[in-house]
Design goal:
7 helices, Anaerobic Ribonucleotide-triphosphate Reductase Large Chain, two-stranded antiparallel ribbon, globular
Length: about 220
């Protein structure tokens, strides 16, 4: 959605109220069509956010192959490394310079239209938010936004030499200094080893904006 909006009006979802409203109108139109088809065929056809562990990369690759002039203006990631991707589902740009609560609020405006499941990711990186900060953030989300679900996603490094797990993504194990390590974090819907990710997801990982929720208050 983000790149579709960007291509049509020249702005991403987070860059203006008009861009955000344009995106909402698109999803509302999709929901209307889904509702009409549900009634016509007597089966439930709800909208759902795509996990897109591979789709965001695959579609970007296909568009760069068949429509390079158009796709190159909106595709995300590092083109030289081949680590390209589209922003997943109804999310805003993963590197957008906005606060986590603003991301939750704006993402949440889409959630009433998505009946089969929707959430917003809060990428924590190596930060360790205290319990009070997490509670305050969840409380503000619940009482002040339309967001259906939030996921707090930290990052870890697993050392194959000493077997220890450390917080954050590291090129060397903080404990034994071995370089035989692998990152573990949420690819989209689940946690997995970074070494198993496709190039698009690796590009997204490099671009992710990490937030520290410590001392977050209402």
């Amino acid at each position: 959605l983000n790149e579709m909006v960007q291509y049509h009006i020249g702005e991403e979802l987070h860059e203006s109220d008009y861009a955000h409203l344009f995106g909402l109108k698109v999803i509302a139109s999709m929901k209307k069509i889904a509702d009409e088809l549900s009634e016509e065929y007597g089966i439930r056809l709800p909208l759902e956010q795509t996990p897109a562990e591979s789709t965001a990369y695959r579609l970007a690759m296909l568009d760069m192959k068949h429509y390079p002039l158009q796709a190159s203006t909106v595709v995300k990631g590092d083109k030289k490394r081949g680590e390209i991707y589209y922003t997943n589902s109804t999310y805003m740009n993963i590197s957008a310079p906005i606060s986590p609560i603003e991301r939750v609020k704006k993402d949440g405006r889409f959630h009433p239209l998505i009946e089969a499941g929707a959430l917003t990711h809060i990428w924590l990186g190596e930060s360790r938010p205290n319990a009070k900060s997490i509670a305050n953030f969840v409380r503000k989300t619940f009482f002040n936004t339309q967001n259906a679900q939030i996921a707090f996603s930290p990052e870890f490094t697993h050392c194959m030499s000493c077997g220890k797990v450390s917080r954050g993504l590291h090129e060397r194990c903080p404990y034994c200094k071995s370089s035989d390590v692998d990152g573990i974090t949420r690819v989209t819907g689940f946690f997995s080893k970074v070494s198993s990710w496709n190039k698009g997801k690796l590009g997204e990982l490099r671009d992710r904006r990490r937030d520290d929720l410590n001392n977050f208050r209402d």
